[in-house]
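Entry, Tuesday afternoon. Goal for today is a structural model of the target with S-adenosylmethionine bound, before we commit to ordering more compound. Inputs were pasted exactly as handed over by J.K., no edits. I checked the ligand SMILES twice against the vendor sheet because last time a stereocentre got dropped in transcription.
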Amino acid sequence: MENPLQKYLLAHSTPQEEALAWIEAQTNTRTNYPQMLSGPLQGRLLRMLVSFSGARKVLEIGTFTGYSAACMAMGLPEGGRLDTLEINDELEELICEGWRRAGVTDKISLHIVDAKEFLRSYDGPPYDFIYIDANKREYLQYFELVLPLLRQGGLIVADDTLQGGKVYEESQKVDAQTKGLYAFNDAVSKDSRVEVVMLPLRGGVSVIRKK
Ligand SMILES: C[S@@+](CC[C@H](N)C(=O)[O-])C[C@H]1O[C@@H](n2cnc3c(N)ncnc32)[C@H](O)[C@@H]1O
């Protein structure tokens, strides 16, 4: 159930396209954790950030049902490419159908792989934009692995970095996911290689720029 703020924000933001609504609806009926999907507000933000930043080469860690990948691909110019990494191969059919409906199939490569393996062996051209949205326990590892693969001035967006407020509630920092995010937020905010701003959108979104 949407809260009143969420409802108002959605009512006053550009509505999502039919294909994105289809992916969201399928995710709700066919998966166990539909709340993992980034959703229309964050999807629109990602699409606009990709577009404003002029990114041509995008990386995503954590595809799930392909919603955020479709949004970012919609923000890419002609010839732009997105690599998205997913460890679980069960949702491939749904992912591909969603991208076909959104008209973004030609822009996206889906890699069924552990992101850490992919990143350690990557030797292609640098990325312009990277979205981190996978295992919260591993955020700091992803950050250290992706930073050398990001061009200077490029952006990293990390999802769920407030973990619904758990990271700043002393008594809530007990589970492994919250500890992972706490360590990530701490390390990134002290890292002189980047600048970062944390936004309270949904579970928290960090926008990080490589200096
Ligand atoms: C929060 S969901 C991603 C949501 C998606 N970005 C969206 O907004 O629609 C996280 C996904 O990361 C995947 N994942 C977790 N650990 C991973 C890893 N080490 N490598 C690749 N994918 C991973 C999970 O299987 C899950 O599908």
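Residues 36-38, 61-62, 64-65, 67-68, 85-88, 114-116, 133-135, 138 surround S-adenosylmethionine (CB under 6 Å).
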